[in-house]
Recover the amino acids of this structure.
């Protein structure tokens, strides 16, 4: 997917005044945030489960190469073919080659953020293969030619009216406004494609080392269709998505649906292993798993490695005051919200996403709700430090930090400067004791006044009153 | 070097490990997998059958109960009547010998087609904690029967309602040794909330999931 993260500020400004988006984001906050809180309250030992999940993910990451080989060995033993891809070009090339090898003309997809990273649909279409998104949200986005704005609820930014218009135009059917009717129309449109498709493409929420299986979680049932009906199934997943055992699956399934959508469990959890047996009536004859790096190894062994624990539930964005205000498109790549503010710079380059690690209030809501305890604000701060060290920030900002740093290390000078500053700001406050504009900080005072300080510093007060 | 070797080598280099995996590392990983230790889980202070029923209802499944398997066709007939549904159904082999004709239901024993309206299946087991059905694929248990029809009816054995997913996996390990091609956990009818976060049943899978619990076993 094209990176547009450098336009964060201008996009965020547009999104803030988009009333439809603001309404949708309010609702998201209500449903997903409240739902998660309810599910967590139902688990008497939630923190112990969360600690265990975090430890499971770390266990894999600390021996990632061995777990990957173990997964490959077990998957291969059951008749799956495992492919490795370093870049998104590799993924697209492998899928196109598989399509050619198996004589595929049409592919149906269930929702996969990894294939959004790769822009796989464009590659398949360029190779002359028809490809259809089948998750309702992703299907709508494919018709509208838009990227998703949330990793769980991809079309959260669109209103029912927009979907009605879109279906009327693209399907050429009478305009429907009832959500159940719109859903049925998409169901009927896609049913035939599931039956006639030659290839099903899915992501994998997890790949299980013990059994060589891939696992997907869906509510609509399209994931089951995609992994059951076509004669070829291709599952594409990041190399970090391994779980050691089936017991670990049970643990993570108590966290992923509850933190994603506030459900106690998703409607369908599909675990697929190997290919259709000789006397079986359904299931694919060929099963391919693509293990995708795409920048993940650049986090391994670094201070950002905890980010690879991520299970893509979306809780961090649902709880983030910045995401809640600007929505997902402002972030400019596949992953929005706090997890995106770490992953986007890591995967596409810090220099292309300078604003993202700074698009945070550091309130740590994301860290508090993350089911695998990723310290997201810490990781964003580390990226800020990297920006400073690599001189990626404007010289004015670096000079200001440099000056502050120099002063902060010299207490006498710091105290003197603070005393002058406090008096100056008190004077600027005037009679109403409010500062209406500050030189070099016009952005701050453009939409609010700053209360003027009293005119003395804390240290002066302390000395006087001791 | 190919992609596989590059990726594995990068991981090892970044974690400051020797270029080659030693046998000890591999053994440690295999031993952990073989031991598959239990993780912490919520307390179960409930009766499995009661809990299963409650949770299944919360997920918008409907639940009925019969004493013995031969009462299932009549119970299913009552359900189809009440819902004004088709009396033609496709069904797993396991239930081929039940007296469907007496209940006024026309049964076809085969995998489901696109046009089938009602699918009748069993389950491998069911999970009390979340009101979930666990289905294993196989020649006698085609997946499509619980997927393509608009109504999915599952006949389940009360004695195979287990506490949680952990017990379900253990049951597969002890009875099947390896996982079948597909394990599908089904928790209520298919749903979506993609448009304006409004929950709508019957996205791609069944609109209705009706569960018939057989108290005295199958």
């Amino acid at each position: 997917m094209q990176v547009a993260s450098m336009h964060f500020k201008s996009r965020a400004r547009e999104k803030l005044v988009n009333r439809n988006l603001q309404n949708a984001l309010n609702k998201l906050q209500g449903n997903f945030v409240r739902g998660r809180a309810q599910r967590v309250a139902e688990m008497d030992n939630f923190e112990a489960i969360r600690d265990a999940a975090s430890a499971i993910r770390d266990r894999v990451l600390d021996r990632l190469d061995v777990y990957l080989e173990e997964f490959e060995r077990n998957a291969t033993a059951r008749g799956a073919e495992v492919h490795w891809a370093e870049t998104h070009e590799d993924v697209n090339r492998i899928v196109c080659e598989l399509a050619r090898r198996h004589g595929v003309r049409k592919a149906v997809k269930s929702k996969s953020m990894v294939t959004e990273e790769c822009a796989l649909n464009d590659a398949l279409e360029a190779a002359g293969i028809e490809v259809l998104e089948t998750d309702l949200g992703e299907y709508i986005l494919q018709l509208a030619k838009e990227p998703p704005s949330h990793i769980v609820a991809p079309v959260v930014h669109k209103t029912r009216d927009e979907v009605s218009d879109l279906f009327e135009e693209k399907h050429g059917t009478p305009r429907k406004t009832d959500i159940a009717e719109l859903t049925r129309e998409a169901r009927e449109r896609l049913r035939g494609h599931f039956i006639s498709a030659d290839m099903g493409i899915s992501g994998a929420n997890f790949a299980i080392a013990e059994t060589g299986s891939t696992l997907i979680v869906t509510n609509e049932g399209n994931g089951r269709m995609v992994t059951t009906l076509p004669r070829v199934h291709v599952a594409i997943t990041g190399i970090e998505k391994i779980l050691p055992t089936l017991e670990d699956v049970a643990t993570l399934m108590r966290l992923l649906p509850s933190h994603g959508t506030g459900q106690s469990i998703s409607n369908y959890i599909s675990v697929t292993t190997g290919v259709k047996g000789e006397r079986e009536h359904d299931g694919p004859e060929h099963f391919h798993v693509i293990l995708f790096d795409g920048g993940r190894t650049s986090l391994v062994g670094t201070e950002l490695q905890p980010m690879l624990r991520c299970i893509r539930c979306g809780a961090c964005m649902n709880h983030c005051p910045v995401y809640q205000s600007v929505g997902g498109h402002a972030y400019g790549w596949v992953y929005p919200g706090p997890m995106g503010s770490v992953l986007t710079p890591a995967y596409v380059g810090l220099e292309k996403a300078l604003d993202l690690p700074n698009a945070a209030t550091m309130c740590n809501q994301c860290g508090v709700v993350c089911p695998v305890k990723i310290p997201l604000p810490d990781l964003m701060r580390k990226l800020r430090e990297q920006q400073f060290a690599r001189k990626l920030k404007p010289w004015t900002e670096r000079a200001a930090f440099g000056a502050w740093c120099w002063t902060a290390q010299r207490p006498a000078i710091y105290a003197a400067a603070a005393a002058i500053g406090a008096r100056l700001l008190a004077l600027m406050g005037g009679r109403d004791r409010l500062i209406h504009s500050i030189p070099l900080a016009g952005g701050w005072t453009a939409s609010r006044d700053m209360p003027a300080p009293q005119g003395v510093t804390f240290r002066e007060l302390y000395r006087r009153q001791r | 070097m190919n992609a596989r070797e590059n990726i594995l080598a990068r991981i090892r280099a970044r974690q400051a490990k020797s270029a080659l995996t030693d046998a000890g590392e591999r053994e440690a990983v295999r031993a952990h997998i073989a031991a598959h230790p239990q993780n912490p889980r919520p307390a179960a202070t409930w009766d499995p059958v009661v809990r299963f029923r409650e949770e299944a209802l919360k997920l918008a499944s409907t639940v009925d109960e019969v004493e013995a398997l031969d009462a299932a066709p009549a119970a299913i007939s009552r359900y189809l009547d009440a819902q004004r549904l088709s009396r033609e159904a496709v069904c797993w082999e396991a239930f081929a010998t039940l007296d469907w004709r007496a209940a006024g239901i026309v049964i076809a024993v085969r995998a489901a087609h696109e046009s089938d309206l009602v699918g009748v299946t069993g389950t491998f087991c069911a999970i009390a904690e979340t009101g979930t059905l666990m289905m294993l694929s196989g020649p006698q248990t085609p997946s499509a029967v619980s997927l393509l029809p608009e109504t999915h009816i599952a006949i389940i054995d009360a004695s195979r309602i287990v506490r949680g997913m952990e017990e379900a996996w253990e049951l597969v390990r002890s009875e099947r040794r390896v996982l079948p091609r597909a394990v599908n956990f089904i928790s209520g009818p298919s749903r979506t909330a993609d448009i304006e976060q409004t929950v709508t049943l019957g996205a791609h899978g069944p609109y209705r999931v009706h569960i018939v619990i057989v108290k005295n076993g199958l």
